[in-house]
Amino acid sequence: MTTTRFAPSPTGYLHIGNLRTALFNYLIARQAGGEFILRIDDTDPERSKAEYVEAIKRDLDWLGLHWDRIEHQSARFDRYAEVADQLRDQGLFYECFETPVELDLKRKKQLNMGKPPVYDRSALALSEAERTALRAERKGHWRFKLDQSRIEWHDGILGDLSIDAASVSDPVLIRGDGQVLYTLASICDDTDMGVTHVVRGSDHVTNTATQIQMIRAIGGSVPNFAHHSLLTGPKGEGLSKRLGSLALRDMRAAGVQPMALLSHLARLGSSDPVELRGSMEEIVAGFELTKFGSAPTKFDEADLGPLTAKYLQGLELEGVAADVAAIGVPAEMAQAFWQVTRGNISTLHDLAGWWDLIQNGATAVIDAEDQEFVAQALLMLPAGPFDSDTWGAWTSAVKEATGRKGKALFMPLRKALTGLSHGPDMGALLPLLQKIPRD
After folding, report:
1. Measuring CA to CA, how many Å separate 137 from each of 99, 140, 178, 190?
2. Rounded to the nearest 5°, which phi and psi values hold at 55?
3. Residue 73 to residues 80, 189, 200, 210, 253: CA-CA distances in angstroms?
4. Which residues have a Cβ under 8 Å from the Cβ of 364 and sit 6 or more positions away?
5. d(C-alpha 368, C-alpha 11), whole Å
6. Above 60 in pLDDT, residue 241?
7. What percent of the chain has pLDDT over 90?
8. pLDDT per position as a tens digit, 199-233
9. Angle separating helix axes 331-341 and 350-360, nearest 10 degrees
10. What distance, in Å, lies between the first and last C-alpha atoms of the chain?
11. Are 20 and 232 in contact (CB under 8 A)?
C-alpha cells in the first residue's frame, strides 16, 4: 500500500512552503488509494506547543487535506531509544564531546586548508578512559557512522542522484541534552509506519542520502524519495524571511479559497499550466509528480486573488448559504442577492459591503455636470416595488426626455444609486435596493 506522511514541527504556524510538501504527499496517497499520515514532529519539548498542533489541524481541515491517522513523535521516545541501542550494538553510533565552539574552529581550519568542513571522527580515537573523563566535564552527543561510500538513488523529480558520503559529516542524532533529533525519529517512523513515498524540499537532498544509509542499517525499506524545488518570491527572491506573512491562517483570514490555493500549488512549478479545479477529486486526478522541475519556483500571492474570485463566481448559493446568512441577508432574498453579487466580489468578505449598500443605501456620487440630469431622472423613477424590467423602462424614459445615451446616460445613474462607477447589472440590482435617493 502506498503510504505518505506530512511531518510538521509544532513550533509555529503552517506556511505556503509547508503546504506544498503536505499537498504533494497527500495527492500521491489519494491517487493510489493509500494512506496519508499526519506526523507531529514534537521531539523538542521546549519549542513544541499544543496550540500549534491544533492550528496545524485547523489549516489542513480548512484545505480538505484530511489525514488517515495522526502520530506524535513525542509518544515514541522508547522506540527511538531501542533503535539507538541497535545502532550502538552494530558499531554505527558513537559518542562525541566537542562543544559547538570547538566544532566551529575545526570547520574553519578545514576551510582554510581547502578541505570540506566534514567532521573528522576524532571521537572514534578516544580511549574509554578519555571518554569517562570527558563525560565528567560535559554531556556527549551521538553521531551515526556513515559508510563513506557513494549513495545513489532515483529521485521522483530530480532523477538519478549520487552523493559521496565521505563529503558529509556523520549526522548528530541525539544531542548532549538527550533530545532526539529529526533524522533519527524520521527514519524510525518511516520504517515502522511503512512509509513508501517521501516528497519534500530540495534542501533535504543531502539529508536523504544519509537517511538512506540509516534506514538500511536498521533493516528498513527505503521509500521512494522526491525533492520539489523551493519557492521564491515573484522576482526570484527568497521567501525565508516572508514565510511568516505567508501563513495559511492569514490567507484563510484574507478570504483566499482553499480550492484556489490548492489548484495553484498542485501545478505551480510543473510543465502544466495552472488551472482552477472545482473539487479535490479533480486536483488528485490531474496531479503528475514527474512534470515538476528542479528550478526554483516563483510564488506570487497576488495570483490567488483572481483564482479565488473565479472559484466563487462558479458557486451556486448552496456553497455560500452560510456566509450569506451570516451577514444578515433574509432567506427569501439570498438567491437573488448571490446571483447579483457573486460576479462582483474578490472574496466572501466583500459580500458584507454589498449587503450594506442594498440595505442602507449609498452616498450618491454626482458630478457637477450631471446634477440637473440626475435630479430630473430621479423624479422619473417609479415609486416601486421594482422588478427586472424597471431599470430598462426607466432609463429608456430618461433617454427620451433628456436625449442622453450610452455611458452618459447610464453611468451617472449608477453612481447616484450605488456611489460606485462599476458593479452588478443594474437591472438585477435595482429590485434589491431598499433605500433609493429621490433628490
Report:
1. 11, 10, 16, 36
2. -65, -40
3. 9, 8, 18, 20, 30
4. 374, 415, 416, 417, 419, 437
5. 59
6. no
7. 92
8. 999 999 999 999 999 999 999 999 999 999 999 88
9. 120
10. 72
11. no
Cell triple for 44: 523538542
Q: Which conformational region is residue 96 in: left (phi greater than 0), alpha (psi within -120 to 50 degrees), or beta?
A: beta
Span 339-365, average pLDDT: 96
Determine the Cα–Cα distance for residues 420 and 204; give it in Å rounded to an integer: 52
Does the pLDDT value for residue 436 go beyond 70? yes
Report CA 102 to chain centroid distance, whole Å: 39
**What single letter denotes the amino acid at residue 66?**
H
Q: What angle do CA 39, 43, 49 make, to 5 degrees?
A: 80
Q: Is 272 helix (H, G, I), strand (E, B) or coil?
A: coil
3-state secondary structure of 120: coil
Q: Are 140 and 190 in contact (CB under 8 A)?
A: no
Cell numbers given for 315? 458557486
- With vertex at residue 125, the alpha carbon angle to CA 119 and CA 131, rounded to the nearest 5 degrees, is 100
> How far apart are the C-alpha atoms of 123 and 435, rounded to whole Å?
83
Residue 345's SS3 state is coil
Rg value, the chain, Cα: 31
| Rounded distance between C-alpha atoms, residue 63 and residue 279, angstroms | 11
Q: Is residue 75 scored above 90 in pLDDT? A: yes
Omega within 30 of 0 (cis) for the link into 306:
no
pTM above 0.85, yes or no: yes
Rounded Cα–Cα distance for residues 40 and 47 (Å): 13
Amino acid identity, position 29: A
Taking Cα atoms as reference points, which of 174, 215, 217, 225 lies closest to residue 191? 215
Contacts (Cβ under 8 Å, ≥6 apart) of 35: 1, 2, 3, 4, 29, 68, 69
C-alpha 195/C-alpha 184 separation (Å) is 15
> Which amino acid makes up residue 205?
V
Give the three-state DSSP class for 342: helix
What CA–CA distance (Å, rounded) separates 325 from 131?
A: 71
* DSSP H stretches of helix in 113-231: 128-137, 182-192, 205-217
